Amino acid sequence: MPKICCTCCGAEYPESGLPHVCIKCGGIFDYDRPFQIQRSDLEKHDSTLWQYQKSFGPTYDLPPISLGEGNTPLLLRSFAGEQLAFKMESCNPTGSYKDRGTTVLMTEIASRGIPFVVEDSSGNAGASLATYCSWAGIDCKIFVPESASGNKLNQISRSNAYVQMIPGPRNNATIAVEEAVRNLPAIYASHALQPFLLPGIATIAYELFSTFGQAPGTVIIPVGHGGLFLGIMRGFDALYQQKIISKMPLFIGVQAKGYHSFVSHFDDQKNNDTKNSIDSIAEGVRISIPSRYQQIIRMCETIDCEFVACNNDELYTAINECWKMGLYVEITSALVWAAFRKNNRKYPGPIVFIMTGSGLKY
């Protein structure tokens, strides 16, 4: 079974508390080997993603803190002769894919008897954590940038969480929560740094396999901190390692113009200006330094990946086209459609779009 260890010094994740970074060296925690999934685990026997609980590593045998997440709809559509599939993560309990990671993280938090957690979030992660904390009877405080959308703020505050508004850029909220953790008896339930979220996100890959009976040709994914991208890659890698699939998909990561560190890494001559002059309307991915950057770079050394950056004009066009198709999603979700529409070649099919959040949040 995979263990959680520091990626810098190799220290194992402690059995008590819930550190967001290694207490010995400050390194990031991650799983030390691919997730373990068996073909028998893929047979549907639960209405939630907890049917894959055996693949969750240390959380494999805990009583779940669940609101019914996972098993989201996959909508099929033909477009210009290509087979498209939209994975509607907007249909999770709080309206975004974040619930897949939150349910596993909250299960771990509850099992460790932690009474109070803090988090920084532009909206969806905070709304998810606050809702699950309410269900589990755990207190939480969410540090939110002042630019966050009103509907997401309502969702957080109505879930009995305390909301601390932080002025300035998104990163200021992270700085504020890290300072609070140093001064308060609180646990930082970071959606960017806590490793427990990744196996929950990996279940998207298992569900896609269960639908298609194989890996899709291409998966297009918005990229902020990179947890969604990394989790889905890890899920398909687990299937590949067990020879359940014979070939990995092509992964297309989509970033917002001005926050496109991966685009710049893989192509120095294209979109290499990451200094943002006009802030992106895709608030969910306004991340200058992705926390999972190095892990994604390493995986992309052996897995076929591409990265695309989309500007606001492309996003406005894409979100309106999504809405007119009947896909009522938030703007960050439209990154995947914008990337598809601007490409000048055909991607291998079927092409899966990860639609991350509900339009009701916008």
Largest sheet: 6 strands, mixed
* Share of residues in strands: 15-25%
Distance between the termini: 40 Å
Low-confidence stretches: none
DSSP summary: helix tally: 10
Pattern of helices and strands: EEEEHEHEHEHEHEHEHHEHHE
- The CATH architecture of the largest domain is 3-Layer(aba) Sandwich
CATH top level label of the largest domain: Alpha Beta
- In spatial order, strands of the major sheet run 3-4-12-9-10-11
List how many beta strands DSSP finds.
Answer: 12
Briefly note the CATH topology name of the largest domain.
Rossmann fold
pLDDT average, as an integer?
92
What structural class do you assign from the helix and strand content? Answer: alpha/beta
How many domains? The number is 2
Q: Would you mind describing this structure in some detail?
A:
With 362 residues, this protein is of the alpha/beta class. It folds into 2 domains: 74-92 and 195-361, Rossmann fold (3-Layer(aba) Sandwich); 98-188, Rossmann fold (3-Layer(aba) Sandwich), CATH 3.40.50.1100. The protein has 10 helices and 12 strands. It has helices at 98-111, 124-136, 150-157, 171-183, 197-212, 227-241, 261-266, 293-299, 312-325, 334-342; strands at 4-6, 29-31, 74-79, 82-88, 116-120, 139-145, 162-166, 187-188, 218-222, 250-256, 305-310, 351-355. The protein has a 6-stranded mixed beta sheet with strand order 3-4-12-9-10-11, with helices on both faces. A 4-stranded parallel beta sheet has the order 7-6-5-8, with helices on both faces. Helix 1 runs parallel beside helix 2 (124-136) and helix 9 (312-325) crosses helix 10 (334-342).
